[in-house]
Amino acid sequence: MAHVYLLDFSGENRTIKEIHEQSAAVGGASPTVGRQTERIVMNIRTFCANLAVAALMAPLAMAWSPAEREVCDRLAERTEKGFEDMLRYDEHHISHFNYKGWELWQIEVPKLLREVAATGNVNLISPGGFSALQAACYYADVELAKVLIRNGAEVNARPGGWQGFGFPGDTPVALLVRGMTAETAEARVEIARMLMEQGANPDADMMHWVWGASAPVTPFCYLTAEPYNNAMRLALLQGSKQDLRSRARTWEMAWSAFTPEIIRILLEGGISPNRSVGSKGETLLLHLIQTGESELLKLALDKGADVRENNILKHYYGGYLFAIPVAETDSAEKAVAVAGMLVKAKADLKQTYNGKSLYGYYSRINTPAAQALCKFFAGKGIRR
Length: 384
Hints:
Elements: E1 4-5, H1 12-24, H2 31-46, H3 48-57, H4 66-79, H5 84-90, H6 99-119, E2 124-125, H7 132-138, H8 142-150, H9 172-178, H10 185-197, E3 206-210, E4 213-217, H11 219-222, H12 230-238, H13 244-247, H14 260-268, H15 284-291, H16 294-302, H17 332-344, H18 358-363, H19 368-379
Parallel strand pairs: 1-2
Antiparallel strand pairs: 3-4
Helix pairs in contact: 1-2, 2-6, 4-6, 7-8, 7-9, 8-10, 9-10, 10-12, 12-14, 15-16, 16-17, 17-19
């Protein structure tokens, strides 16, 4: 069902005043944005004709059970509390960049949810362009998300001009990603998988506010290195057949932030094994060598990983052949296997580090793995 504008908002001037008072406590609002929002609300009241449209569409909406209406009303009560819940997730994102979105969200979303609960029309949108599904996703409300999806909610709905809204301009999937916490991660991943099963786009851009500037990023690239994000990362990678090179175009993560399963999907999806963050970023080869992921190392080499490329630990290692783990607990057999793969890929056997050859470097270390490497390099004609 097409979106219907929900325009019956009254008493908003008082709400705006309250919002300005609340935001003053967290850094202040933009007066210009505030006046723009007030004008929007005043204009809304003049669009009475659209109320008739909403009234005509409501009987066409699928009837909800009392339990379903209660789920929606419950989230409406939560959003009516104002900025408190939002601040728990996004207190560091308050800025002139997205204050307009915060204001409109506070004004519109609670009443939108009430109207959706009353009519059963899951595709009502507020004048600012917000949907009930956006609210369910931001607050990780699994029950409401199920109700909305089951009743045909549009899974990619977002406001027009979303780039200037901050978080309220995100798609439902992006809102799930933006609000990730250890406590809500499981619920958010569950909702994300439901959305993508219904055709939600996991690659729709979201705005990322960093160091005083904003830029569009994909949800996959927005996720930080915390372990609780791994399940969402995996869900996003599995949620679409789109070329992963496009999905990872704004990548800012080190390879070490990814699980082996995610690395495999990225490599098999066309991501270059030579990609790193910045000119001195950690390379995939270094990560795989030091973590002992031999199968993934072979895959990376098969995909064209450059064994001659410098890495972030250049001041510690002269090259990849110097980075093989040789602690007391490291396997001698695995160390030799890794060296063999690198040499087969044309790694330079004559490289030196602090004036020492590969043989001379490992001969100083009295562990089974290091001595096995000495024997391996001696067999290749490398001596002190």
